[in-house]
Amino acid sequence: MRHVSLILVSAIGALLVCQEGVAEAQASNAAALTxxxxxxxxxxxxxxxxxxxWLKPWHEAISAAEVxxxxxxxxxxxxxxxxxxxxxxxxxxxxxxxxxxxxxxASLATARAGLARARINADRARKMKGSGVLSDEKTIEYLxxxxxxxxxxxxxxxxxxxxxxxxxxxxxxxxxxxxITSRSAQLGAVVLSGTELFRLVRQRRVExxxxxSARYLPLVKEGxxxxxxxxxxxxxxxxxxxxxxTVNSDxxxxxxxxxxxxxxxxPIGLYATGRIELGLKPALTVxxxxxxxxxxxxxxxxxxxxxxxxxxxxxxxxRNGGDxxxxxxxxxxxxxxxxxxxxxxxxxxxxxxxxx
Length: 356
Description:
By secondary structure, the chain is of the alpha+beta class. Helices cover 26% and strands 40% of the residues. The protein is rod-shaped. It comes from Rhizobium tropici. One of its GO terms (molecular function) is efflux transmembrane transporter activity. This is Efflux RND transporter periplasmic adaptor subunit. Belongs to the membrane fusion protein (MFP) (TC 8.A.1) family.
């Protein structure tokens, strides 16, 4: 333990001597540190807006029962099935519907037979009108009977068409191309009209409903590219489809709808982060090693003509590949210290690497 204490005392003493040496060198106008310098560079950087939100279906579609009291006899697809518009998804028992259809077709045949008889009498009445063979009352009776028979046939035809529609509704069809995401149809179940049996993502299209800060809203336009950090570390590319016209007053954020390309198994329901690309924007940059943070404020050190370090407060922006964007506070003609800046104080004399 005594040996360790001696080592610590020696190390602290050496550090104090070093600091005193730097201070003495600065006081005697000797160069305290050899540094590298570099002028700020203007680069073209991709500017992006950070965003986050849920992956949700572009639109969902529901295939539901349109008739009541019929039993499900076949279920033809399951969750994850890719379907096309008009494809059968399930079938209901149709025996009673077919029986009702035959009944209505028989009624139609009867109505048509009645119409045929009524037309014969009506035609005869029209031919004999004014001859005195038939009274006016009888003529009117035959003509009105014909009109009633015509109405009866039309009514019977409508009933037959209704039953045929009902028969077609015993087959549950996909209302659009898409991916089945939910199935509530169970074999043997008796359904009610309006019962949801299947739900699908229309055209397999998933969108990113991303929230962005309202201050970026004027910059985000339809058609801009977007990149999402997908599951497994991959990236998904998309396009801004719509920018919401309102801002949430509670969060100060607005919704941006990003259209994604169709995929076999869309990652619906995931919360994802990403960015919306605004295009190339100029950036005045310096190496990140130039930046010194003190009390939460960013500074860089420049070298004046007398080779003294001058501390300059700066506002920073984007970072990319080891460089940092300087938004304000720095003249582009300045000589910025890129190494050892963290050890300098304002006014320190420095030796420029490679200089005289």
